[in-house]
Structure formats: C-alpha cells, structure tokens
Amino acid sequence: MRFHMNGSSDESDIVTATASAEHIRKFVFGGGTDAAADRLEIKIPEILQGTYSFYTWPCAPILAHFLWERRQTLVCKRILELGAGTALPGIVAAKCGAQVVLSDNCILPKSLAHIQKSCLANQLQPGVDIDVVGLSWGLLLNSVFRLPVLDLIIAADCFYDPSVFEDIIVTVAFLLERNRGAKFIFTYQERSADWCIEALLKKWKLHASSINMDEIGKQSGVDLLEFMGGHTIHLLEITLSDPQ
C-alpha cells in the first residue's frame, strides 16, 4: 500500500472562482442493458478552478459503484464518510437507505458548505436526510465524540498527502475501537512507490486487506478504466487487528 502526495492549495484560492467555473457532473448507477434494473442518477456540483475538495476525483465513483452494487446491505446502516469532498460515495449510500454522516476538515467551511450543496442537488436535506460535520484528522475533538454509532467508515482518495497519513490512521483506529465490528473501506490512487502505511497499520493495531475490483461497475455497464484515466486505483478494507 503505497501512496503519493498530490499538490494541494489553500481553500482561499477559490474565493475568486466565478459561477461560470461551476458545472454539474452526473453519475448514473444501475440500468446497464437491463431496462428493468434499479437506476440512480446523482448530480455533483464541481468547481474546476477550486481546490481538490471541489472536484470528483477518480477514486470517488469507483467507491460509489462498489457501494451501489451492495445497496441492499446498506439499508439503515450507519456510515461515516471521511474527507468527503464532493461526497459522491456518501450520497449514493444515503440514496440507498443508509444513515450517512459526511465529514470534511473542520477548518474549511467552504468545503463543508459545498458538501451541503451536493446534498441539496440530490434532494437530501442536511440535518434531516443526511448529516454534514467538520472533523479534524488526528485530533480527538468534541465533534468526533458526538458521532453516532457506526457500522461502516468510507473514504475516497484520502491518502493524498503523507504528512496526514498517521492522522488518518489514528482517527480510523479510534473510531474502529469505539465501534467494534465496523470496517473502514476506502479507495486510493497509487501515485508513487515511495510511501506506504504498513508500519502505521502495525503501530495502531490495524489490519488491511485488498478488495477485488474486477466486477465493480458491471451492473451499470460501466468500464472502471474510464474513471481511472490511466491511473492505478486500489480498494482496501481496514479492520482492527484483534476485533475481540
């Protein structure tokens, strides 16, 4: 499990972004060649001139399709999405009947506002149909303790900066410890062979296993390579090393 840092920018960079820079991106789940199959369309507002949290990166639709294809198991499940960004996976889970909390950095109010905008674009009322909260990775603030009981934690491409790898792992370890039996399922884009998280997983007593991606997207007639855009993307599950 090796990761590479993406260049990041300050959220203030988006202040000058105009309305013309925003567009709505549509993602369709289900249907495929079977006209009678379930179908879901999600609309995600994106700001192409904004920071990384205002764009739907390739990892997100892959995780979203993974969840969609297990939609029967999501009904009434309590799910937290970390680093939600445009929140595609979490919104799909909510549309499938899960009780979802979408989270992003607590010191980036514009990112949290954009998550709320994504929810409203899909007829999900924040605070009613879905929750949006600010969290800080690695810091166990009140917002972390106020989270509900969780069955599943998800994230798409949250390992983009090695300086926050341990902060993410610490947060995940704490949440899994508080929610015995829960899992952390996430996608990540492989950008370099220079960084890995094995040592951190061992330090915080976590176990990771790879999830096969060969069948993901086939129910919707989707080729994952179209989303990957030439990148290598992996899907992993992290649990406590000793769940007992």
Automatic annotation (TrEMBL):
It comes from the Eukaryota. InterPro entries: Methyltransf_16, SAM-dependent_MTases_sf. Keywords: Methyltransferase, S-adenosyl-L-methionine, Transferase. One of its GO terms (biological process) is methylation. GO terms for cellular component: cytoplasm; nucleus. GO terms for molecular function: methyltransferase activity. Belongs to the methyltransferase superfamily. METTL23 family. This is Methyltransferase-like protein 23. The lineage of its organism: Eukaryota, Metazoa, Ecdysozoa, Arthropoda, Hexapoda. The gene is Dmoj\GI22652.
